[in-house]
Design goal:
mainly alpha; 2 strands; 314 residues; single chain; 11 helices
């Protein structure tokens, strides 16, 4: 089967599976009265990061570590510059809850730690991966504790009725989404490797472009839908949580499975740009208390320029 058909099938399966997972998990969470920001930063973020996790682990076991790192760092760049940019152009993010400061600080912390393996050994070891996973567990636990502490002041979403039929239907959606992700990841990575060999591009470039963009589509669809419905907290929480999950869960789990070798020439620029866009996001959310259309346009333009430079460089 031609590589481009495998990529198309893989992307379709990943997007459909991720969407099913997000729809099912989000409904179940919101029916129980969980805050939208927390839903976006945990349940939705996990669901939309699942394609990156599946694609990266499959790539590593197929000896394509460059695709794995390109996917993680490329997806984080796309989430901020492309998705936040496009969403802000469509509808400015003008409401940033005070609780978002915790998520922003945690994302900044793990993002600033990404160059450490390059500085020390050039390898993300199993111990590094375990530490990243441990940080993710601590982060999730802290969010849950905060939610439980504040939950008595809120009630479940009145528009989401936790009926037996609804619970069964959305549990089925969640299950179908989880089951479809590995298949989509396998097809996507297989096709991407074929294109890389045919075009003479490095694995990192393929991971940064085709795979990272493809696996970021669930974040784009979710954030766009949330913004369209006026739920900026879910859109913002999705991006913050997804980027943190990509580093801690995707990179962490992949490293635990098999150590990931990185070089400054290949991963260095991605890490630097990833740190830069995260700092810009933190400044916009902390100082401007929102992201307007001008800032969104600049983010999107920066992403287009970065992608053009990456393809030319590759």
């Amino acid at each position: 089967m031609p590589d481009w058909i495998l990529i198309a099938i893989g992307l379709t399966a990943l997007i459909a599976s991720g969407e099913a997972l997000v729809r099912g998990a989000s409904w179940l969470a919101m029916a129980s009265g969980v805050r939208p920001m927390v839903v976006g930063a945990t349940v939705v973020a996990f669901g939309t990061s699942a394609p990156e996790l599946a694609a990266s682990i499959v790539a590593l076991f197929e000896d394509s570590g460059g695709i794995a790192t390109g996917t993680v760092f490329g997806s984080n760049i796309a989430n901020v510059a492309l998705i936040v940019g496009l969403v802000s152009i469509y509808r400015p993010i003008d409401h940033v809850p005070g609780s978002a400061r915790f998520e922003v600080r945690c994302l900044m912390a793990v993002t600033l730690l990404t160059p450490v393996p390059l500085l020390l050994s050039g390898t993300v070891t199993r111990l590094d991966g375990a530490l990243l996973l441990a940080f993710l567990i601590w982060f999730s636990r802290a969010l849950v504790r905060r939610e439980l502490r504040d939950r008595r002041q809120r009630e479940a979403d009145p528009e989401v009725r936790p009926t037996g039929k609804g619970v069964a239907a959305h549990t089925a959606l969640l299950t179908v989404g989880l089951a479809g992700l590995p298949f989509g990841a396998d097809w996507l990575v297989t096709g991407a490797r074929g294109l890389a060999q045919a075009a003479g591009l490095r694995d990192q470039v393929i991971g940064l472009t085709v795979v990272a963009l493809g696996t970021s589509l669930p974040e784009l669809a979710t954030s766009w839908s949330a913004a369209r419905r006026g739920h900026s907290e879910i859109a913002l929480g999705n991006i913050l949580g997804s980027n943190l999950f990509n580093i801690c869960m995707v990179l962490g789990a992949a490293a635990v499975a098999t150590p990931i070798h990185m070089t400054w020439q290949a991963e260095g620029p991605l890490i630097v740009v990833g740190i830069a866009v995260t700092i810009v996001l933190a400044i916009l959310l902390g100082l401007a208390r929102g992201i307007g259309r001008l800032a969104g346009t600049l983010l999107f333009a920066g992403y287009v320029a970065f992608m053009a430079w990456s393809v030319w460089r590759g």
